[in-house]
Amino acid sequence: xxxxxxxxxxxxxxxxLNENGSLALIExxxxxNDGEGLPVFIExxxxxxxxxxxxxxxxxxxxxxxxxxxxxMNTRFIRNAIEPFGLTLNEQNVIEIWAxxxxxxxxxAKYISGLLxxxxxxxxxxGTSPDISLFVEDVAMHLIAxxxxxxxxxxxxxxxxxxxxxxxxxxxxxEAVIAINPHPISVxxxxxxxxxxxxxxxxxxxxxxxxxxxxxKAAETEGIILTSMATVMPMTRLIKVSHAxxxxx
Length: 249
Description:
The chain has 249 residues and is an alpha+beta fold. The chain is built from eight helices and 13 strands.
């Protein structure tokens, strides 16, 4: 094996998209869950380098049926996945990161890590409701009704023992809250996050809101797995207490 064979072996290629070479498409071996390649574009503007997806990530999820009748989509889950890596989703729904030319290697690593985090969210939701962000928004509404808007913080950030950055769903009264569907992959991912974060912050408390309206038995079974790390709260319970004044542990 020689260096000249590495692009073919690793699945990397670069295709210039304009005459002066300032804009290019980078092919990688990384894919979404359905095998579609992760979109990687690079643009040079002066001494600045921009890595971006040209809106293709949002189009990917719209193709999965996540949009409404007007072709709009709740993109909160994408923002939550990419923000720990310093990426943004701009007003045109383009994922991007800018860097000085000398910092381009680090920016590229962050860009790929951010897209892989989005792809991981997709894998976690496989076999469940197609738009987990809608469930998270539903949870937010009921948490605010239960605890009050001032006590609910969205997308709190944590660093795990492995130095991995995580953006969880909410923070309420000292508890980090994760909203999940009762799917083994989602449960496993939530458990991994909590174990890693707790390794760095031993005193942290977790609460998991698990969707139980479609499959109560699955929610009960999967919820048991999480009880060693968190207070597990079925969504039906959250809805009930959001309309009452009772105290919940």
